[in-house]
Amino acid sequence: MRIVIAEDDPLLREGLALLLRAESLDVVATAPDPDGFLTAIDAHEPDVAIVDVRMPPTHTDEGIVAAVEARRRQPELAVLVLSAYVEQAFATDLLAHGSARLGYLLKERVGRVEEFMGALHRVAEGGTAIDPEVVAQLLARSRPDNRLDRLSPRERDVLALMAEGLGNAAIAERLFVTDGAVHKHIRSIFAKLDLAPTDRTDRRVAAVLHYLESGK
């Protein structure tokens, strides 16, 4: 796995590189700003980019903008975004462009090496990884009159784990239920959120987007 890191904090940038190299991963370049990051993407064509949300010069959304541009240049690039805080708009914006090969984690997750590495590999393999704290805070902010109120407590648990990017087998293991039970809950979630099957919409992604957007 070839990785480029874009992070303006030199301690975190080098710490990430050391951690990943210790895990036998190939960090081909690091960059302190968006321009250096995009130059590295063009030069190395990595498999994965790890990108800070807030980067120079304004420290607002430069990382997100650069990540979108990197994916435009290299559509198969997996992107794992790191943020110091829960920033809902960035999480929903990422998923709105498609959930494959995308992740959004809080920086504190890096210190939990097993969780961080699991999320990194999930994104690299084509999946989605949304930080559990992001999911929890969005759930706490959700409006009382939205369609999520139709869901049972167990269905909300399943949807929360779907939002983290877990597949059915992983959800079943986390909740100590069978795969069949998870499949049944997901069918019920789709029905209660009025998500009919179509050729143009991935209902799993649509359910997660509704879940995240309900926190606005």
From TrEMBL:
Known CDD domains for this protein? LuxR_C_like, REC_NarL-like
This protein's record includes keyword Transcription: yes
GO process annotations (BP): phosphorelay signal transduction system; regulation of DNA-templated transcription
Q: Domain (Response regulatory): give its ranges.
A: 2-122
Please provide, alphabetically and separated by semicolons, the GO molecular function terms listed in this UniProt record: DNA binding
Q: Which InterPro entries match?
A: CheY-like_superfamily (IPR011006), NreC/VraR/RcsB-like_REC (IPR058245), Sig_transdc_resp-reg_C-effctor (IPR016032), Sig_transdc_resp-reg_receiver (IPR001789), Tscrpt_reg_LuxR_C (IPR000792), WalR-like (IPR039420)
Q: Which residues carry this modification: 4-aspartylphosphate?
A: 52
| Source domain of life | Bacteria
The HTH luxR-type domain extends over 144-215
**Which keywords does UniProt give here?**
DNA-binding, Phosphoprotein, Transcription, Transcription regulation
Q: Does the keyword DNA-binding apply?
A: yes
Record-given protein name: DNA-binding NarL/FixJ family response regulator
User: What organism is this sequence from?
Assistant: Nonomuraea jabiensis
Q: What is the lineage of its organism?
A: Bacteria, Bacillati, Actinomycetota, Actinomycetes, Streptosporangiales
